[in-house]
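Lecture 7 notes: from sequence to structure.

We start with a single chain of 343 residues. Read the sequence below before looking at the structure.
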Amino acid sequence: MKTSEKVLELLKKHKRSAVSGEEIAKELQISRTSVWKAINKLINEGYLIKAQRKTGYQLLNFVDSLDLKQIEKNLNNEVLSFCKKTNSAIGSNNTKIELFSEIDSTNTEAKKRLSSNTNSESLNGTVLIAEKQTAGRGRLGRSFYSPGHNGIYMSIIFKSNSKTIDTTVMTAAAAVAVCRVLEKYNIAPKIKWVNDIYINDKKICGILTEGTINLETGVIDAIVLGIGINVYSTASFSKELKEIAGVAFSQNDSSVPDRNELTAKILNEVCAIYLHPEKLPVVMNEYSEYSMVKGKFVTVFQGEKNFRAKVVNITSKAHLIVEKENGEKMELLSGEVSIKPQI
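Now the structure, written as tokens:
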């Protein structure tokens, strides 16, 4: 690791409190001159560092870049094993995890690879991560704004088999996985059926799960699970987007994590659910507990029709049980709901 990188890690460790050049030099066992040169290098790279004669150096903006080695460093052995290339040893950097500085859509790229590969088993455990997406996608043909150095955008390929979770349940399970991680940072996330995660009534995460069909058998051969999270800032969001979308962390929050750490923790949780389907009942109970629609009146959209109903339960398959205003109960397998009353 370069001296400037070591200094940056130390400044991040101290979050936004100041640390003296003497302390940095002592901890890193380098000269004060080396500290000064490293600080200037970081400033030239765009980091906002305040230098004060009596207190030292203070990192004022939290800028991080996704780094494949740092992501893999935070993965547990089970996930590293699941994602490793055939005949490659764990820790040899031969995983099926790839990082793009820019891509149109990680889901689109994953589906392209599946369509051009007759052996989907070889792609099982492939993870595609992007710093930026130019054509990020959401459910129902919607777009997902994905600016650089601000979020987490990744897709995971899961081979389907008789024990594999179906696409709807996998979407719900992934939402639980993200919520589990966010809760560790004292955040209270909620899930809006079926695939969106909200914090303080604003969407911060969307999940898009797509299945690929085996043309010979007519069954789902593989699942592409896409996760998009607004992590840091809404500064580049349009005025309209700011009204409905938020972020998981404020850059002024002293507890804001590194995106590499956050990405790895989410991968650990998501893959654990896929690898241990016997624990699904617990996961789906959590999905119900995280729900922001259960027990509330919603507007249900089905094609061009919509109606008001109360969500009375969520099944183990992530289906909504709703009760219409006339007392009729029905089970929703898919669709869209809104908590806001229609005018």
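The CA atoms of residues 85 and 94 lie 6 Å apart. Keep this in mind for problem set 3.
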